[in-house]
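Students often ask why we bother encoding 3D structure as a string. The short answer is that it lets us treat folding as translation between two languages. Here is a chain of 288 residues written in the first language.
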Amino acid sequence: MIGVARPMHALQVSGAGLGFRRELLPELKAGVPAAVGFFELAPENWAGTGGRSARDLRSFTERLPFVCHGLSLSLGGPGPLDEALLRRIRTFMKEHGIELYTEHLSWCADDGQLYDLLPIPCTGDAVRWTAERIRRAQDILETRIGIENASYYVAPPGAEMDEATFIRAVLEEADCLLHLDVNNVYVNSVNFGFDPLAFIDGLPLERTCYLHVAGHYTEADGLVVDTHGAPVIDPVWALLDATYARVGPVPTCLERDFNFPSLAALGREVRCIRDLQDRWSRRARVAS
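And here it is in the second language, the structure alphabet:
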């Protein structure tokens, strides 16, 4: 039986990170790859757990910084905002010294959880609705949060603006931060035929707090699916490099949700992130 954990002093998130998954725990207990500077977890999967899971998590949050990346808040959805979940997340973050929380710019629930991240119509009404819910989430969490651009496969009808303009409008209306998922930009750019760098340049990059990079799957008909179940491909690495040229080497997490290779292989991908970050850090020092 574990009692209430003491509040922890927050550890600074920087560099390159890896998703904290139970499937990786046996290898992680034997040693965290040197390139991994922080972990990311979904708070819905860990808040309120006890026993061995709680002890395992605590053994890592005491040593390394963590980021919370939400899966089920449904910020653009029609149903009531889950304020009870937000309060649980706030308590969880304070218990483990976690300062950054991010969520998807999408919706995933109505009468119940839909278990998919669905796109929000790019309309003025949706801007105001979603921004109000983000502001409420920030009030409950007592911090500004990062909002992630999502992958999608069908564009909602009735658009009054393009997606980059919509994202900018929501973030400015809510006064929140940008969690830029580079792989999601690439996936959408292939599926919908737009220039990924032009899209990134249309975002409020001055608000960027966090990045994601991941692998995906290409169907036989050319549809690209954001699976997080494969290695990162060269065009996505190139897009990450171009993103660092615009925003600097902000904290970046490698997402991997299934088809796990060895921890050593994941560590090499995280090292690729660190190498790009170090190169842009050196360029910044030379320029200054």
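Translate back mentally: The chain has one domain: 16-287. Keep this in mind for the problem set.
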